[in-house]
Amino acid sequence: TSVVLLQQATRAYGAGETAVKAVDGVDLAIEKGAFVALTGPSGSGKSTCLNMIGAIDSPTSGKVIVDGVDLSTLDSRRLTDFRKERIGFIFQEFNLIPVLTVYENVELPLQIQGGKSRGQMAEIINPVLERVGLKHLSHRLPRQLSGGQQQRVAIARALVKRPAVLLADEPTANLDSTTAREILHLMKDLNSTFGTTFIFSSHDQLVMEYANRLVKLRDGKITGIEERG
Ligand code: ADP
Ligand code: ADP
């Protein structure tokens, strides 16, 4: 079954003659457990697609259905709730909170969700930190970590929610190729262990090596889909 379904999804900016369609009539189904890369040149609509799937942005027409929920039926408050509960996001810039430790950064989404005691949160967080190889660094601040370690924190922070999909916008763009490979290995490992669905954007050749499916975008449209082993 599809965990993400785009049906004629379109996101236009501006109106009339000067309108730009960042995403233009995209049809795409992504099944649970997929490891999919959105590729294409800068400006082709990769981020806009991820943002619509992640309930950060809404289509101006068409449908975006994620985890069985038609996002176009939700008001902005419910979109926010959906994002907090069901979506994990990681970014090129890591986006960690600089004054919080590794542990506290990873705890934050659970605190925002609420409903769990400190001990219950620790039972979720500690195994995830172990899994991404950060247990021994849990008291450090982000600035005391390498780029690769910071991206691991961001991945752990996204995982503790057990999201329906993990979205990654250019996750390796700020990493050297060795570190990028390590992060991709980790993502792939989490994908095969937990069946977490990963959808990421990239124009990095390395990322394309790891993806099970490449969705090629240009000018907001899908120009090709390539399945790989
Ligand atoms: P990519 O991630 O592939 O680089 P984007 O999804 O960021 O592409 O952008 C696709 C197109 O939409 C680009 O032409 C971009 O300029 C335009 N666009 C994106 N966001 C906005 C915005 N907030 N306002 C106006 N145009 C935008
Ligand atoms: P263990 O089974 O010994 O807990 P694993 O390496 O299998 O160790 O898993 C590490 C931890 O990752 C789990 O204990 C759990 O907290 C977390 N985890 C399990 N399933 C998922 C999932 N679907 N998404 C994210 N994290 C998960």
Automatic annotation (TrEMBL):
Q: Name one GO molecular function term.
A: ATP binding
Entry keyword set: ATP-binding, Nucleotide-binding, Transport
Superkingdom of origin: Bacteria
Which Gene3D superfamilies does the UniProt record give?
P-loop containing nucleotide triphosphate hydrolases
UniProt xrefs under CDD domains = ABC_MJ0796_LolCDE_FtsE (cd03255)
Q: Which InterPro entries match?
A: AAA+_ATPase, ABC_transporter-like_ATP-bd, ABC_transporter-like_CS, ABC_transpr_LolD-like, MacB-like_ATP-bd, P-loop_NTPase
The residues covered by the ABC transporter domain are: 4-228
Asked if the Swiss-Prot or TrEMBL record annotates the protein with the keyword Transport, the reply is yes
User: PANTHER family attached here?
Assistant: ABC TRANSPORTER ABCH.1, IMPORT ATP-BINDING PROTEIN
Q: What is this protein called?
A: ABC transporter ATP-binding protein
For this protein's source organism, the top of the classification is: Bacteria, Pseudomonadati, Myxococcota, Myxococcia, Myxococcales
